[in-house]
Design a protein that fits this description.
Elements lengths: L2 E4 L9 H7 L7 H28 L16 H12 L9 H12 L16 H7 L4 H24 L3 H8 L1 H9 L3 H14 L4 H10 L10 H7 L3 H22 L1 H20 L11 H7 L4 H24 L4 H15 L12 H14 L5 H14 L7 H19 L18 E2 L2 E4 L1
Antiparallel strand pairs: 1-3, 2-3
Helix pairs in contact: 2-7, 3-4, 3-5, 6-7, 6-9, 8-18, 9-10, 9-16, 10-12, 14-15, 15-16, 16-17, 16-19, 18-19
Amino acid sequence: MNRLTYSPQGGACATSVADRLMRRAIAPDPNRFTGMIERVAFAVAITYVVLLAAAFASGVWLVDAHGFGIQTDFVNVWAAGRLVLDGNPAAAYDWVLHKAAEEQGVGHPFDNYFGWHYPPIFLFIAAALSSVPYVPAFLAWMALTFPAYLSVARMIVGSRIGLFLACAFPGVLWNIAVGQNGFLTAALLGAALGAMKTRPLLAGVFVGLLSYKPQFGILFPLVLAMDGQWRTFSVAALTTLSLVVASWWVFGLEAWQAFFHYLPLTSGLVLTAGLAGFDKLQTIFGVVRWFGGGETFAWILQGAMTATCIVAVLLIWRQRISHDIKAAALAVAVLLATPYLYVYDLVALAVPMAFLIRLGLRQGFMSCEIEALTLASTLVFIVPLTSGPAGLLAIFVIALLIGRRAVAVESPAVESPPVVPARASPAVSGVKWSP
């Protein structure tokens, strides 16, 4: 039986499990396929631009046929910021006053209500954006956060192809369509994980900034503490505390009181009553409720999923394996552990996918890995077009790919060795291939 053995310079020998999986990998020959992938990704990104331009010209996106702004998710950000500038930050959590500010932003009344559920630390950004009218603020928000997302994807993948693939990811289209914060979330999550190994203090800042969406920070303290990354842990805690104190100082204690007062009411409407639609929640909790399960049962299963994510991530981070696999595992676990996840949050799924692509370009893509990445992207694309957990299925697909990588590589010495195809020379860079 063929065996794949690494020399002492490589530092370790692959186990039998790793043998079987790594022999099935595709040879890492980026020049063979990256050009084609870049062209396809560019075409997809151009398609997104055409779709958005057509929607704008048809009066169904940003501005309607009468010249009024079209309400999207972003209107809740603009309205909250407008109330801050009007001298009443706590009113951002008052549904009546906040709804009135939303209608002021778009210039006409409308039926739906886009609630403001974020902690007061996000009011800094909201206030800055609302200093200009609704549509320019919308465009400015996208113009500021989209490049941040792209730069982080480029950093993780490590080559130009990362930019093309990040642009083509379907979450981009859906996030721009509603003016949401998916780009900011993905940028902070990816930057934190990408900097954790080499720039731990900077990583701590990014983790702290991610506290504007507290549901995404559940796993970070556990992982950082277990891994002994106390500098990152301390800076993250200090950054979060600084944001809280600054927001208390600028917006007043009343804003925080209003946030905590309305938080259980919002949770009841969204997670108990399903006011926004359980089919839109891309979580275990949402799936159970969508299929008619009771709230208690949904919380039990979501709790089990969260506990599973904690155990799995801690086990992976305890192994002596590539940081890329660890980072991807933590990124995907963050998405699975929360009960509150919508289509725009799926932009963050590009982060673990970027780490997998980085591994594939350096070590070789494993069998069916490219197809699975394509499947996950397709599932994200159809989320707003169908009812059901297509986004959750996409997360599970990426989680399975990461799990397979974690099983296949069990030593830090195989962090970045070349995967030798069957047709390769018997000795390449200290790697022996014996019959």
